[in-house]
Amino acid sequence: MSRPTPEAAPGPASWDQHPEPLAVASAPCPEYGSGSLADLLPTLAAGMGVPGMTAAITELAPADRNCVFLIDGLGWEQLRAHPEDAPYLTSLLAGSRGGTGRPITAGYPATTATSLASVGTGLPPGAHGLPGYAVRDPATGELMNQLRWQPWTAPRVWQPYPTVFQLAEQAGVHAAQVSSPAFQNTPLTKVALSGGAFHGRLTGEERMDVAAGQLAAGDRSLVYTYYSELDGAGHRYGVDSDTWRGQLMHVDRLVQRLAEQLPPRTALYVTADHGMVDVPFDDEHRIDFDADWELRAGVALLGGEGRARHVYAVPGAAADVLTCWREVLGEQFWVASRDEAIAAGWFGPTVEERVYARIGDVVAAARDDVLIIASEREPKESAMVGNHGSMTPAEQLVPLLEVRS
User: Fold this and answer.
1) Of the candidates 101, 64, 52, the residue with the CA atom closest to the CA atom of residue 268
2) DSSP code per residue over 99-160
3) Are 255 and 69 in contact (CB under 8 A)?
4) I want to staple 305 with a disulfide (CB 3.0 to 4.6 A). Which of 98, 133, 195, 355 is the partner?
5) What is the separation of C-alpha 361 from the centre of its chain, rounded to a whole number of angstroms?
6) pTM over 0.70
7) SS3 for 391?
8) In 3-state terms, what secondary structure has residue 47?
């Protein structure tokens, strides 16, 4: 599809002018194709000789056995800010991303459903088709929550591509997932992470032990394991709360436990799906869509989440909605039309036709510590302390810590 040229960065405003809205092109686009979550498994699989895979993250050396431990919500900036709570993880920071000491990027939006699909399929959001927390289903006109998969839609119609785990298994690699039993049969798992054997274990310690055993089960192995409780603590209490710090301490011990059990010829990679920011509870930082007639005007559906909104206009109103959202929010959010966001590469180098209409007519990504809440239609999400989704470093940058045996 054609891609309009992104608008130019605005010049300085004089004292008697309205401040210019943030330029779409000024948003820090994820490193698709060289250093994003979507590039990780293809790089590891290429090193194990899986056909069709490309080693896009060139800093990573091949290994016969690879393990990805994804810790939900462990942002690069949050980890660096808490060295005393995570001494083992902190000791690995200098070797992140193949010894460069650099992070990788999550992808846009920086949210769990999108990131897990990027990890598992090795594709950016514009290809795998999960471009947000909640997006419009063009077939029904309803919002579809892609984390909870509500309302239900056929998983393989929504995301038709095979996962890297499936392709690796077909190439003779021993593939396995080790996670909570609750995730075994979810539609998100099926479209994003299926392939190989699923090993459900309740405790983090059990998962580490089983993951180590699965790595040793093949001459070439690809193992994925996951921990979600750090993210939950951040949402509920914030990323500098005692509860969050306690979870970080626990995660630190889990990583060390797994690292000490790695079989020979193994590379362990510790990463995350997004970081997180705490947003104050006041009207300046939490803009309530449900109470703001300007923002509601011409809007049929409000999708996405507080820091990464998809806005679906009533027919014929998209241009007016874009103008209004830019005027109201443009100093704090990057506000783009669908085509502008696509042209700027927010969702990857290409957006497939089946994905195009899932993206909002207007896309709003927070730069400042602000949210667009919806107190009536999204009461639980609107009450969260920690939030994520946008392209700021605190949300977008995630570690790629490495341990080799």
Assistant:
1) 64
2) HT---EE--SS-SHHHHHHHHHHS--HHHHS--SSEEE-TTTSSEEETTTTBS---HHHHS-
3) yes
4) 133
5) 21
6) yes
7) coil
8) helix
